[in-house]
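Issue: copy button drops trailing tokens. Both records pasted manually instead:
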Amino acid sequence: MPPKTRKVAVMGYRSVGKSSLCIQFVDGQFVDSYDPTIENTFTKKLKVKGQEYGLELVDTAGQDEYSIFPAQYSINIHGYVLVYSITSEKSFQVAQVIYDKILDMMGKETIPVVLVGNKNDLHRERVVSTDQGRRLADSWKAAFLETSAMEHEAVSDIFSRAVLEIERADGNLPPGGGCSIS
């Protein structure tokens, strides 16, 4: 069976670790230097529940609450990974704004999304609680994970979950919390 291609936009406020998560997932390395991303696309094959997927990750430029939502992020995108930093209340608020803009753009009630609290390794600087993240994701009917791109913690889980959320939205998986990562 040929791999299914799925396109996922990775979005969030600037310097929350969108590129670091993508590079850690695709290349297995942590890039410490910060160069603001214009836009990058990464591809990687991934197996979820026995099915091969060709993932195309669109690593977007950092958004803020005033950014116009770029139309290209609503066309041919199957799902979204919205990233905030657990050390930044502002990035958490921006994730909510981006989510609302995606819904407006798509004209849908729900979209396949994984909310990611990144920088879990900086727990001493945490300002956004795990509960806050989980509650927000629940209100969206979205998946939720906390990760550390630096420590490679739960990074591939993000993209496996994104695929599962997309398949569920497409009616290819039963709804509910049945989560298994192969």
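Record 2 (pasted manually too):
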Amino acid sequence: MIYDVTKYLEDHPGGADVLLEATGKDAKEEFDDAGHSKSAIELMQDYFIGELDPTTEIPEMDVFRKERDTGFASKLMESAVQYWAIPAAAVGISVVVAILYARRK
């Protein structure tokens, strides 16, 4: 049986935590072990929303991993060459000009 006790969380004598711990699972055993009164069992009917079909089989999910782009390293190197080629050339030309200027003196 499936119950939606969202509206009962604040009123539950055992506190909301007890109900939240049972979320999404079969909590019949925990409910029975708590020794609920007849009025508590009757109150449950107000929150009943349906029954779980035990014959329905839930298919197992297939997990797919996204393949990483194998060209990432090459793209990174292309970007590095593209963005560092001009400054490196400017430094190289500056060094050559400085050496030539120093020789003239």
